[in-house]
Design brief:
homodimer, alpha+beta, Nucleoside Triphosphate Pyrophosphohydrolase, Arc Repressor Mutant, subunit A, 5 helices, NUDIX_hydrolase-like_dom_sf (chains A, B), hydrolase (chains A, B), hydrolase activity (chains A, B), NUDIX hydrolase (chains A, B), WHD_NrtR (chains A, B)
């Protein structure tokens, strides 16, 4: 067997804040790049993890306190030059969660940055985030993916803002609502409305249970 | 650093044969599953490979004699259960080539199977191939991807057959030609036609050079 290769999982944890698509970074507690902000990540643990998704769930839980949100494999970044420790593989996943879950988390090591205003990050993390944003952008065009950023209940104007943040463009209200009808993933929340400043109250919606992913915040981070 | 993990690259090498989408398998020369047919693959060599794509090119060349055809990362398959040797990662790529290059290859260890008529293969290779077919199917709907299966020059009826094999459905001739016009990747080959049995000769096309990938067959396999 050839020489061992560093095998890790990194997670691009995305939220919407101030109507912008943002990424959650975590302060590194080890060398290299100790104390610098980077994507939450860690080694695969052959003893504990059944597969990569399992590793991503464990690492996300340890670093952010979040239990499995919407999580999908993005791409694998690998090579001789990306990590000063040696040849490394990172199987990158992206996760979408409601911002409130991050903002209410007690983990002081987490920070939030708009994806289009990032400083230079360690490793190839800028490139990884750019790839994730491109994937989200593409998928938002034809899927209910952005709904996972919207929290438990939301108005259609709010959901439209989220889609717009993902797509990087404004949408026509009528055609957006038609698209949502087509998708068929939403249901109204009986009797619940959102007051929207000077506007009339907006009906609240949620994902139908069959399209809902399991998401929970640990009372205290691990 | 935790215990080492087996780090490999596998390649789903696809061609069209008898108007069917087929995968090229290679006889394994090592345990586990020695002498069984499986996807061409191998260990990442930290000393030789700059990155995963580099590893895929090297392995494909060693096992099939093919120099870089159209090659794209598919997905990473990883876990404790997929390889009897232990926890393993396979960064899977897919490659599309003209069937003639495989059929004229002198490597006796290569065999060709329709993707929808595969026996049970070693590891999780059936699942990997199914994932590749799904990706090709999706991408064929909106890209020039199937052109890489068509060889140097081809008629539009031939290219339509290839698209149909990728998509798993028949296409309307008029709308197919309109789509190809829209894509704008083809150019006519001056004066060249293909005789098509009882039909009148068909104009030959090729990929415009800016949409062409580099592909070569070694005179003798390595």
């Amino acid at each position: 067997m050839p020489e061992p290769i560093i095998s890790t999982v990194d997670i691009v944890l995305l939220i919407i804040k101030d109507d912008r698509l943002c990424v959650t970074l975590s302060k590194r507690d080890k060398e290299p790049y100790v104390n610098q902000e980077a994507l939450p990540g860690g080694y695969i643990h052959a003893q504990d993890d059944r597969d990569c998704l399992d590793a991503a769930v464990r690492i996300l839980q340890q670093k952010t306190g979040l239990l499995p949100p919407y999580l999908e494999q993005l791409k694998t970044f690998a090579g001789a030059a990306r990590d000063p420790r040696g040849w490394s593989i990172s199987v990158v996943h992206f996760a979408l969660v409601d911002a409130d879950l991050i903002l209410s988390a007690t983990n002081p090591g987490l920070t939030i940055w708009p994806v289009d205003a990032l400083r230079r990050l360690p490793f190839d993390h800028n490139e990884i985030i750019a790839t994730a944003v491109e994937r989200i952008r593409n998928k938002s065009q034809y899927s209910s993916l952005p709904c996972y950023l919207a929290g438990e209940t939301f108005s259609l104007p709010r959901l439209q803002k989220i889609y717009e943040a993902c797509l990087g463009e404004t949408l026509n209200k009528v055609s957006f609502r038609r698209k949502m009808d087509e998708l068929g993933v939403l249901e109204t929340v009986a009797g619940q409305t959102e007051s929207a400043g000077a506007h009339r109250p907006a009906q609240l919606y949620r994902l139908k249970s069959e399209f809902k992913n399991q998401l929970k915040l640990l009372v205290r981070g691990l």
